[in-house]
Amidohydrolase
Amino acid sequence: MTQVIARNAEWLQQVQEDIIDPHRPIIDPHHHLWRKRFNQDYLLADLWADTDTGHNIKQTVFIECRAFYDKEVESHLQSLGETRVITDIARQSHRQPEKAQLNAIVANADLRLGDDPGFLRSVLEAHQQIAGDLFKGIRQAGARDPRPEDLVIPGPAPAYLYGQENFRQGLKLLGTMGLTYDTWHYHHQNEDFCDLAEAVPDTTLILDHFGTPLGVGVYRGSRDAIFTQWKQDMRRLARCPNVYVKLGGLAMPDNGYDWHTRDRPASSDELVSAQKPYYMHMIECFGPERCMFESNFPVDRLSISYPVVWNAFKKLSADFSETEKHAMFYGTAARLYHLPDPKD
């Protein structure tokens, strides 16, 4: 595994941009909280330091990241520790309603327990008992690459997770319980994910980070060929009405743009120039009503600052209608994760 250390705030602040469309309400549907990853903490104060930089971030969704696990209990219950800590942090956020509200938790559970539906249901209900209405779904990422040593963030999934029947049974249980399934994987796993989406049509699946087109290790120098295949995979995937997508997460080190190694972080224009074809193809395939912009912070923070990445999203969506923009910045996430109306 390649080691990367997060740069400090002064490095990020080298790129300053005027905030575009500052009043537009935004839900950030994908961020993490943790201690000592990339040699830095990222907790509520750090999240708020980012969300308070000028964009109108109303609500956020925490996505599991194997943080705060309770290592004193059986393995299938350890992720409850993360849910417990994040629930407490969410409640802290609710004490300051003028700031971004953490209003949803996508937790982790081993869906391969689906061959014993009653047992898996008890695990999911334990998350619900802790988090209440904050608990929206599960992410058990499918990411796995044959050369994890080349990656900064090697996926921990077992081989061919998506094809395991017990896992698919677990996904079907999520659907019956009204819970969503988020996942993250690499570009060479998109075909397997298409097979999975077709097999569980009654469960809502959410693809994070474009299916992560890799650009490091053996994949460096193959961006055009990977993009060509990726476009075909996304067209097939979009034919599954149960699949939604998050637009973001392409500034991770493993995407191969190397912005994290430079003297200055990326600007919004650089992101748009390098990545616009991915965004436009995804929106064309899925439509704005199934797309939502995501920060993927603090992982993408290794390469770009929070106000700059949202500026990039606003530039990318400049030619869309007001209804389409609202869907991608707010409405799709609000609907999928059953988030409260801020007027309530």
Q: What stands out?
A: The mean pLDDT is 96. The CA atoms of residues 66 and 260 lie 23 Å apart. The two ends are 46 Å apart (CA to CA). DSSP finds ten helices and ten strands in the chain.
